[in-house]
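**User:**
Make up any protein.

**Assistant:**
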Amino acid sequence: MESAIPAHLQTARTRHRRVGDDYAPPYPSFVARHKPSVTRVVMAYFGLQTRGTPSIAVEQAPARLASEFAAADGPTHWDRARYIDEAGFTTVVTVAYWDDRPKFDRWFPPARDRWTGSERTSDGFGTFIEALYPSVEGYETLFSSLDRPEGVAVLADGMSGEVLEHAYWGGMRDRIPLSQTSEMAPSGSARTIRDGARVRIIPHDNVCLIRSGQDWGDTEAAERKMYLGDVEPVLREGMDFLRDQGRSIGCYANRYMTVVGPDGAVTEKSYGMSWWKSLSALERWAESHPTHVRIFGAAMKYLSTLGPAAKLRLYHEVTVARADEQLFEYVDCHPQTGMLNAVEAA
């Protein structure tokens, strides 16, 4: 058993874990391990928002973005997903990951100009960029299996052995290296800067992002029926609550998305991604809100019924970022899009 926090990021604690060294998790889980030379990563979400039948321009925009990813200094990994939001808009989100900030800084300016800046063409759809540049001390990952990394973990050097800090309330915080010495509490208020059609959100400190995914592609008939019939509807109910009512509990925005291939084909993968005022707000929802209690209960029943035979794969990544590690900008998007809600909440 090893700590989720790698040895080179461990430090003398001023804040203690919720469990002791003698804690024994009831099932195995693993975290991504970067090379010690990696000190910062980039998570950049490029969104496209439209209503009604997609135009040719809407269909072509993600392909153009993918071609830009293939250029020099492009991301090490990217994937794409889509969903219909609370206002009825179809949103396609392409998330790209770098583990070399200077490479991103060289690649990003022209791509930004074409996506939300002066070189953007007005084709009747909205676009946005939501990006974080956290230090490796500011985020954590968790996986139920070793052999299929997702998201930022694709950039990692490999996976850990079985880790101690999971399967208890507070494990998410305990896996973030900053938690050893920092409360990671939010401070300040978000504000808006308007630059022509572009709306930039200047955020507060310690905004929290979670991406939490499911992959049922390897399940066989009985397990698939159990997941899609017993677990997924409860998960969707919770995701819809966060989408529609989350601002009352500190969730600025939630997207429950279906992953699609580069050609737009639907996969048997989904993930929820949500922006939170703080890690504490996310923890409170996870620990005590009825919608998440039901998700947790359905998942535990599923996993306890199937045991080691379960082929459903689960993962998540949770990030807490300082204000200077964040970028949010929106063009022609409706007012409830993403972190536009943070200003309304403030």
